[in-house]
Amino acid sequence: MLDARKKITVSISAIALALSTLATTSPAQAVPEVGGMTGQNTADTATDSMGGWSNTTANVDGRPYITEFTVDGNPMLTATPSGPRDPQWLSGLRVVVSATNSCRIGQAPAPGQCYANPNRIGITMGYGNQDSVSTNFAHSSASTYGITEDSEIDMTIYLNTLAGNLGWTWLNGLPSYWKVDPVAKTVRIKFKPRYMPSSRDIDNFCSTIPVSTCPTDTATSEMLQATMVISVDNTAPLFEGALFASSGAIIGSLEVPNSFSTTDVTRNSLTYGIAAPHNFAADFTPTGASSAGGVRKGSFYGFLPNTLLSSGFGLTDPTQASSLMSIARTSSTIATGTDAVTWANWDEVTNGTAGQFVSITDITFSAPKFKMSRKVTVIAKGNARIKVAKGKARTKSAILKDVGIKLAKGQKADIKIARSSKNVCSVSGSKVKAKKSGKCSYTVTVKNKKGKKVFTKSGYFTVTK
User: Fold this and answer.
1) CA gap 100, 79 in Å, rounded
2) Label partner for 95 (CA 20 to 30 A): which of 239, 376, 433, 457?
3) What are the residue boundaries of the structural domains of the chain, listed by start?
4) CATH fold group of domain 382-464
5) Which of these, 342, 341, 337, lies nearest to 362 by C-alpha position?
């Protein structure tokens, strides 16, 4: 059990996983690095020097696999696979499913070393064969596949025996659709790939988790990749189904509290971090630039399901996230970009899941961090000005407005008077009646249609003579 003051760190390291985040840019010329990694056969087979699915509790037959896969609407599978051992690739284009942090043969599972089942699943699109693939779609050898930043990749992943452990997901690119189906044990995602800085010759501090610094000034090269990481360790169940993505970074991290307060939502927060060399590679011309190289600009994307905004941040109307949530850069790195924040509403029909999609663009590096939290309101000051004469009453609807609560469809609110205020006021039907001069303190508990508590908020008013 972690100390309540500590934070759980959710992280993705490009160096450790042979995966990287991306940059929203276009190449000035062919990038020489091909971005090689193991194919599925190699990922399935554990050895005394490398972990693999064959040495996990799930084993190869229990591992996740791709059941649907299209690029710009064109199928990339000849048929739906019957299982992990039944590849149905139409061409050399394929997706490798890796058992990240699994144990080598002869290695005993231990926290922070390796796990009997992987705590992360790597999902990487590449081209090649079952033994090895290349992942840089900007390389001349990938020209046959025609993958660009405008390509829409649509894939469905069957989580198999690890479905019950699903947590957060990180994407290397720009997402437009995300759906978790616990009954079918699948996740479906649509996204467009982006460029990334190569991990070659990058200082080790650039991969420190959580993100702290990145001393490397300029990237060696930039690569176009399509990859994601799925967490399956159950360390932060509140974030089941949450998705975040980034562009322009070599690593990303998510720091969350060990527990979220249900009585004071202003204490709850998320901290996202990304790291990368300060400048683009010298032979790389970013979109909109007139010359190669220059200061790196990237973006961060976060999808928060409405359920998370409601239970974790007390938003009874998640569509108000843009006005009720605060996002602030907290790293010591001086920002020369604008760190522009925008919010967009996602719905189930168009985007797969109802929630709010936040974008932070024009981010400069090397190691920016952003803290997301509920804005501190002036409710307490407003309550201090609210006065109710003795013998009069304040309605429940007025009290909900006093503490900033707007009930969602199906929700109900109960008001309970604090013990210290029992002689000052009392609940009478749908009102709070003022009985004696003093401070009337109360707690409002919001419950969903099933009667389960969603969150609580406290408030008060003054009873006058």
Assistant:
1) 27
2) 239
3) 7-374, 382-464
4) Immunoglobulin-like (2.60.40)
5) 337
End-to-end CA distance of the chain: 51
Q: Measure the CA angle with vertex 314, ends 313 and 318; round to 5°.
A: 85
Query: Rounded to whole angstroms, what are the CA distances from 93 to 45, 60, 90, 306?
Result: 21, 21, 7, 35
pLDDT in tens, the chain (465 residues): 223 333 444 444 333 333 333 333 444 443 468 988 999 999 999 999 999 999 999 999 999 999 999 999 999 999 999 999 999 999 999 999 999 999 999 999 998 899 999 999 999 999 999 999 999 999 999 999 999 999 999 999 999 999 999 988 888 899 999 999 999 999 999 999 999 898 888 998 887 778 888 999 999 999 999 999 898 987 666 777 889 898 988 877 778 777 777 667 777 888 888 889 999 999 998 877 888 999 999 999 999 998 888 888 888 888 889 888 999 998 866 678 889 999 999 999 999 999 999 999 999 999 999 999 987 654 444 466 788 999 999 999 999 988 888 887 788 899 999 999 999 999 999 999 999 999 999 999 988 888 888 788 888 999 998
Rounded to whole angstroms, what are the CA distances from 55 to 39, 71, 121, 229? Answer: 17, 32, 15, 20
